[in-house]
Amino acid sequence: LSGLDPAQPYFQGTPIEVRLDKSDADFVDIIHTDSAPTIPNLGFGISPAIGHIDFYPNGGEQMPGCGKNPVSQIVDLDGIWEGTRDFVACNHLRSYKYYSDSIIYPDGFLGYPCASYDLFQSGNCFPCPEEGCPNMGHYADKFKDKINKDFLKLYLNTGEARDFPLWRYKVTVTLSGRSKVKGYVNVALYGSGGNTKQYQITKGTLKPDNTYTAYIDADVNVGKITKVKFLWNNNWINPTFPKLGAATITVEAGQNR
Predict the structure, then answer these.
(1) DSSP letters along 196-211, please?
(2) Which of 134, 132, 119 is nearest to 59 (CA)?
(3) Cα separation of 252 and 257, whole Å?
(4) pLDDT band at 207; cut points 50, 70, 90
(5) Is there a cis peptide before residue 57, judged by omega within 30 degrees of 0?
(6) Which CATH superfamily is 1-165 part of?
(7) What 3-state class would DSSP assign to 134?
(8) Single pTM value for the model
(9) Rounded CA gap, 133 and 131, in Å?
(10) Where does 167-253 sit in CATH, by number?
């Protein structure tokens, strides 16, 4: 049984006989997309973990792309009817959109086991454990025999619009050069599965021999990495023409470590 943002009003905190619960099937997976408190935030979805595995994309409360201005949403590509519904209950309805995207992307929507969304965002729960990470949505049941906890909370990020899946990478850059300089460092990944856009790894004071780490959620599964593009910029003209390079760049993919 897959619960697509199961309802919160009149259900949260009630006995398991009257709401969705993991005792309802051999395997129950839940996608929480609108689990902010109903009052004052009008969250429609239940927030506690109630399945064998519970996914909290983007933290489970506010979905990217749902804060768009109402007019652009109502005149969306999906048509006026869908746009109007999205404006009223965008977060709640994201659950079925993620699910339908998950059918097309069997390798997408990896959920990372983590104690909280903040810890996930800061990279504490990266990479996937040895047994791997379950895929949110249609292929979640592939993970059925690997569950050894009462409740498993999983976190991931998604895109703002279709296509929704993102793939998480840890990028570590050690700089080389003669002098420190202010600016930013961008990195793009190239691989057998496609190329990413540039992602900012750090900004501020850039010091040679220092190492900088960032977690990026790329909109493409790069696959086997063939090339990394490194770019730094100090945003203004510097008469000393400082030079910076990358001594090393390390890329770790979440799914296969």
Answers:
(1) ---EEEEEEEE-TT-E
(2) 119
(3) 6
(4) very high
(5) no
(6) Alpha/Beta hydrolase fold, catalytic domain (3.40.50.1820)
(7) coil
(8) 0.91
(9) 7
(10) 2.60.60.20
* pLDDT tens string 85-138: 556 688 998 999 999 999 999 999 999 999 999 999 999 999 999 999 999 999
Which residues neighbour 59 within 8 Å (Cβ) at sequence distance 6 or greater? 117, 155
pLDDT at 99: 98
Residue 27 backbone dihedrals phi, psi, to 5 degrees: -145, 120
Q: Which amino acid is at 108?
A: G
Residue 36: both structure tokens together: 């902010």
What 3-state class would DSSP assign to 89?
A: helix
Q: Mean pLDDT for the chain?
A: 90
In which residue are the tokens 């079925």 written?
96
**Phi, then psi, of 154 in degrees rounded to 5:** -125, 140
Q: Measure the CA–CA gap between 244 and 131, rounded to whole angstroms.
A: 40
